[in-house]
Design goal:
Protein-Tyrosine Phosphatase, Chain A, four-stranded mixed beta sheet, 4 strands, 42% helix, 11% strand
Length: 146
């Protein structure tokens, strides 16, 4: 059944295995360096570090568009990372905020509301600071940035 639905999967081990690299990072000149799409899956090269400069807006936008496309066609979309507490729930929070499906006041207010529905949310500083810094670009937009 999952084949009919869509998945978003993060770097370790999915993106790494898909592109076939063995070192710490994908080759920067690879055409799928940031993300790759295969069938019903989006593979992200997104690491969970404390520095927000490692979070690519391109990756975030592709993730939100992918989720939106799935839901617009009545498909389920699983967004997951290794522990389910930082990268994937942060993308989920941002999607809900972009569609005004969660309290969209300040980032801190939205984060508090989100923790009520997803108590495991425990973002690393990198993804959290990226979202906080870009909150006004996404929250309440009603559409996904290209």
């Amino acid at each position: 059944m999952l084949r009919k639905n869509l998945n978003i999967e993060c770097k370790e081990p999915y993106h790494k295995a898909l592109l076939g690299y063995t070192g710490r990072g994908a080759p920067k000149n690879h055409p799928e360096y940031l993300y790759a799409i295969r069938n019903n899956k989006l593979f992200l090269n997104i690491v969970d570090v404390d520095d927000p400069s490692y979070i690519s807006e391109v990756i975030i936008n592709e993730s939100l568009k992918f989720i939106d496309a799935a839901l617009q066609t009545n498909k389920k979309c699983l967004v997951h990372c290794n522990l389910g507490e930082s990268r994937s729930p942060s993308i989920g929070l941002l999607y809900l905020a972009s569609k005004s499906l969660i309290l969209i006041g300040s980032f801190v207010e939205a984060e508090q509301s989100y923790r009520l529905i997803y108590p495991a949310y425990n973002p690393k500083n990198g993804i959290r600071n990226f979202i906080q810094s870009n909150w006004s670009k996404y929250a309440g937009r009603g559409y996904i940035l290209c």
